[in-house]
Write a structure and sequence with these properties.
This protein has 95 residues and is an alpha+beta fold. The chain has 2 domains: 57 residues, no CATH class; 37 residues, no CATH class. The chain is 42% helix and 20% strand. Strand 1 and strand 2 form a beta hairpin. It is extended. The two termini are 16 Å apart.
């Protein structure tokens, strides 16, 4: 999917934190006019940018409990682990 590049200013509490460079098919921030594929592409690029930021952020207090519940479900055979790349491909096929 080809697209236009644009820069998104990132601010927190009114303070500029940086600029993220995104490439999406539409420059318009109007989500209703974007296709599902365009929205997913933008979300992916934003997530990749956020993942590279400061790793010192603390998890919310409920996070450890949620992780333990998932571990318990996997251990008990009520849930299975899937490769992330394969899971993304499966979700894309369903859409």
């Amino acid at each position: 999917m080809g697209g236009d590049s644009f820069h998104l200013a990132v601010a927190e509490n009114g303070v500029a934190r940086g600029v993220a460079s995104l490439t999406v098919a539409l420059v318009s921030p109007d989500l209703e006019s974007m296709s599902r594929e365009q929205k997913l592409k933008a979300m992916h690029e934003i997530w990749e940018d956020l993942a590279g930021e400061d790793q010192s952020l603390e998890s919310p207090s409920w996070h450890a409990q949620a992780l333990q519940e998932t571990i318990d479900r996997v251990r008990d055979g009520r849930e299975s682990i899937h490769d992330w790349e394969e899971a993304k491909e499966e979700l894309r096929r369903r859409m």
